Amino acid sequence: MSTTRRDDAMSTTRAVIAVEDLVKRFGERTVVDHVNLTVDRGKICGFLGPNGSGKTTTIRMLCGLLTPDGGRGTCLGHDILRESDAIKRRVGYMTQRFGFYEDLTIAENLDFVARLYGLSQRRRRVDESLESLGLTSRRAQLAGSLSGGWKQRLALAACLLHEPDLLLLDEPTAGVDPKARREFWDHIHALAGRGLTVLVSTHYMDEAERCHEIYYLAYGRLKAHGTVEQVIASSGLSVWQVRGANVAGLGEQLSSDPAVISVTSFGTTLHVVGTDPRALERVVGRYRHLPGTTWTAVEPGLEDVFIHLMEGESGQ
Ligand SMILES: Nc1ncnc2c1ncn2[C@@H]1O[C@H](COP(=O)(O)OP(=O)(O)OP(=O)(O)O)[C@@H](O)[C@H]1O
């Protein structure tokens, strides 16, 4: 018994974010509906869900920019209802539309942010921040002339200037090319390795797979939580992959069967998804001897799981 109590106490100490029953209403609409979230120090936590599911609203409640209508908890050890100023000082928040002065250079923009925070040793901090994000050679370039990937690096540099303990990143890589996204994530992992905690919202499955754990929100409600493997395993989905040159026509027939919840085309393959493995196997049995097709039972992907969770909630 005492071990359990000690473990609980330790996990509370490690948790950088620990909130429960978080609620936010806008007028009659409940857009965040009793959400629980725990993120430990040094972890990268992915926040996923369809558009309008309440991710940004939750992030803004965590960093003290919005007051919850219900719930309780702490962020960086501070009460989210009463100590928002203390939280704001220790959080780096990258919003979906990070604003720069386009007619200032990269270095001038960072210096401006450093002044806003009232930081000492601004020159040193700006130089170090440019260096760590590979921006030194571009320091004199106007922010307005940067491509998407470099703008996003500048945004990250600005969020890190005051050396926060928690990074809240709201779709930081939307519209950024794959190489720049990969580099951005390498950087995030390096920061987490040094103890920074990261909560990052994203619509990209490959990014979800780079998180230590994920939370999936749909229509304000938490639908899944855990490591990617845990979320996939708990989905209860069965998936068959069909390969063949002419599988497109087959998709329509398969999806009309009640045992099939979705069929997705990927070039010359189809993903056939169901929740009842036996019923799905019976469907597969009816088609699998069609000439020119190869059928394989495969693990569900995260995308299969999320689409299933989303469809299960829509219209409610
Ligand atoms: N200030 C506000 N007033 C009224 N409704 C709002 C306000 N802010 C957000 N909403 C609504 O709350 C819901 C949740 O929005 P939120 O931006 O949190 O979702 P999201 O999951 O971040 O979406 P996305 O993936 O598109 O960024 C949406 O329906 C949105 O229109």
From TrEMBL:
Its EC number is 3.6.3.25. PROSITE patterns: ABC_TRANSPORTER_1, ABC_TRANSPORTER_2. One of its GO terms (molecular function) is ATP hydrolysis activity. Residues 17-244 form the ABC transporter domain. Keywords: ATP-binding, Hydrolase, Nucleotide-binding. InterPro entries: AAA+_ATPase, ABC_transporter-like_ATP-bd, ABC_transporter-like_CS, P-loop_NTPase. SMART domains: AAA. This is ABC transporter component. The lineage of its organism: Bacteria, Pseudomonadati, Pseudomonadota, Alphaproteobacteria, Rhodospirillales.
